[in-house]
Amino acid sequence: MGADLVERACRHVPLPRSGIDAEGLVSDPEARAAIRDVLRALAEHVAPNGEPAHGGVRLETPDLVLREFVPADWEAVHAYAADAEVVRYELWGPNTEVQSRAFVDAVIRSRAEDPRRAFELAVTLRSTGQLIGGAGLRVRDAAHREGDIGYALHPAFWRRGFGTQVARALVRFGLDELALHRIWATCHCENAASARVLAKAGFQYEGTLRAHRFQRGEWRDSLLFAILETDPRSDA
């Protein structure tokens, strides 16, 4: 009939009688997640990439799509932001639902800044559109063309090379599209996994920042990494 068939929204969602609450609403968590994914796929089809009508940033890797956040993303954000293991080395979290909602709202509002300096993006699976984490690049000093990156993924998607894909995508965006000269990142001295990701993405270790952050009631050191526009890329 000429209608668009949105394959990612074609899902069979089993719903047992016990999955409906007294008010007639779906209460089964797996069914809710599946329905949310279907609605997100439809929304992204109508407004490509889940972005506002005026457009936005979309970065692609072999397995992932980094796109702008939309309000409905907060539940998927909360799924990783409330996880104690995810935020073990972070200055934030574990989040409450209120904090996860506030984060998504703040990110969406920040897109109105002109010129835009913060690019916080949802990390989604290219195959299904499922949101599995968040990543960001911030322009810290426009005059000196300097920015920094950060990322967090749901534990179910660790050790698959996704973190490296995210870091490389942010580097390409920052150096090629934003014309940055230097992009840096820090990580907790005990966060060996993040240090490996940065090294694989082409960042060079520059040193240790002593007593760099006050975290969980004590000062801790940070490892400093950076990549310059003149450095070789690591896209292999």
TrEMBL record:
Pfam families registered for this protein in UniProt: Acetyltransf_3
Q: Is Acyltransferase tagged as a keyword? A: yes
Q: Which domain of life is it from?
A: Bacteria
Instruction: Give the N-acetyltransferase domain ranges.
Output: 64-226
Q: Which molecular-function annotations from GO does this UniProt entry contain?
A: acyltransferase activity, transferring groups other than amino-acyl groups
For this UniProt record, the keywords arranged alphabetically read as follows: Acyltransferase, Transferase
The family annotation for this protein states:
Belongs to the acetyltransferase family. RimJ subfamily.
* PANTHER family referenced in this protein's UniProt entry, alphabetically: [RIBOSOMAL PROTEIN US5]-ALANINE N-ACETYLTRANSFERASE, GNAT FAMILY, PUTATIVE (AFU_ORTHOLOGUE AFUA_3G00765)-RELATED-RELATED
Protein's recorded name: Acetyltransferase, GNAT family
What taxonomic ancestry is recorded?
A: Bacteria, Pseudomonadati, Myxococcota, Myxococcia, Myxococcales
